[in-house]
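Table 4 source record.
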Amino acid sequence: MSRPHAAAIIEDAFNEQVERVLRGRGWGNRVITHIGYGTSTYVRVFARIVLGRRGHAGPPERQDATGALAPRRYNRGWRVFVTAPAAGVPVVVTIGDREVYGRSDRGGYIDVVAHDHGLEPGWRQVVVAAQGTDPVPADVYIVGDDVTYGIVSDIDDTVITTMLPRPMVAAWNTFVRSGKTRRAVSGMAPLYRRLLSAHPGAPIVYLSTGAWNVIPTLTRFLVEGGYPLGPLLMTDWGATNTGWFRSGQEHKRTSLHRLARDFPNISWLLVGDDGQHDPQLYAEFAEARPDKVRAICIRQLTPTEQVLSHPVGRAEGPQRGWASRTVPTLLASDGHGFLRLLEQAGMVGEPVAAEEQPSRPATP
C-alpha cells in the first residue's frame, strides 16, 4: 500500500491532537446516523462518530428523513462544520437479532455492509452504537428483488437553486442559517413523486458533492419541499489519502458504478444539470453501462444561473456533444418540462394507489 498523501498525514495528526485534548476534558463519543440502503442480500449502513461534551450533547442525532421535519436545532449554520471526528472507534450495528462490527475511519465515518440481514423490502431500521453512547436508530431502504427502476438525482441546481456563484455554495451552506436564498426547482418534487408512484418500491438516491455535514439542512429542505425520501450520498471535504482535496467528479463517478453493482437489476433515470459536470459524467456512465441507464435528464440552467454556476465561462452542455449515444438525453428547464418529455417518450407509467406505495420510515 502506498504512503498516504502529506495532506492526510497533516490532517490526521491535527485531528489526533484535538481528540486527545477533548477526551482529556471529558468529551465522549456521539453517534450521528444517516439513511442507508440495501437489497434482500445485503444492507449498507451509514453513520459518523464525533466527539461531544458529556451531558451537553443532547439526545443522539438521527439525521435522516423520516417524514417528520428534522429538529431545528440541527440547522446551526457554521457549527455543523465545526466537529471533531472520532477515528478508529469500534461500533456495533444491530440488525434484528444480529450484530455486525465495524470501526470509524479517519474522518469518523461508518460505512458498514452486512449480508444475510433478513430485512423485508421497504423502510426498515437498524441500530448503531459506539462505546459510551446510547444506541441510535438508522433508517435503511431495502429494495425488493423484483424492482427494476430507480432515480439518481443531483442536488445543487437540480432540485435546489441558490442563485449564488458555485464557489460560494459551500460558504452559503456553512454560514447562512435562514435559507432565504435557496428555493426548490419548479416541478422537480412532483416529477419524482409521479415517477416513483408508477414504480412501487423503486429507490431514489440523491448524489451530491456536498459534505456529509449539511445533510440535516438538506433533509429539512427536501422534506419541506415534498421530495421523496432516499439516501444522500455525500463526500467528506478536505484532505484525502491521495491529495489536498477530494474530487467531486470522482465521487460521483465511483458512486454511480457502486450503485450499478449494488443493484444489478435496476436501470436508472439519471437527473442533473448543465452547470458543471453532470452531462459528461452521466454520458460516460451510460456509455460504459448502457443496460443500467433508462434516460438522462439534464436541467438547462438560465443564463444567470449558468454565469453563477460556472463563473469562468459557460460550460459546454449536452448540445455540444456530451449527450449519450446509447440512451435518450432529455433537456428541460424544470420538472414540468421533464414530465412532458418523459410522457411523450412513454417513460412515465401509470401511478398506483397510495396504499400500494412504500411507506415512509417511522419516526421513533
